[in-house]
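Worked problem 6 (solution included).
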Amino acid sequence: MKREDIYRTIDKPGEEVLFKDKNSKFFGYTFPITCETEAKHHINILKKQHHAARHWCYAWQIGTENIRYRSNDDGEPSNSAGQPIYGQILSFEVTNILIVVVRYFGGVKLGVGGLIHAYRSAAQLALTSSVIKEKTIDIHFSITFEYKNMNKVMRIIKENQLQITDQKLELDCKLFICVRKTMANKINSLFSSLYEIEIKRLDN
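Solution. The predicted structure is:
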């Protein structure tokens, strides 16, 4: 059963893979991304690296709760490249990922069915050669308080094994914490119930 605060992704680019069919070569790549700009950056690098290739087809997905995705056939027949690649993202249940398949045409047409099979196979190989990790969906909070209340705040942080991501300790103190989604309401309530302590949820 899929846990509601777990998602699957990659931390680093996967190894280059190669799928061949009727003299056409399909090079597959995976990259971790958090925004569309990063996806464009990786695609542009591959276009320079494989400047003699015919097509640079791709699909990406970003987000854990508000999902965004895109697929691109890059001149191949409609839905013969980008969608088969995106289908593997769904099949492997990964997100925050870009898959690019670079095609060198081998002189023999594969037909739409052959293209779907080739792009799907290259994407599958690329994902199989990548290290996929499970991560928690985290909610970020800021906690603001006077220095005299430091012990109260730290007690809750230690008891619940919360991660402090940043801090500003001046006359007023401000801690930034990272909380697993399933614990977020509990932690919010614990800090909200304390006198002279303000907790605020931050947009990720």
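Discussion: The mean pLDDT is 92.
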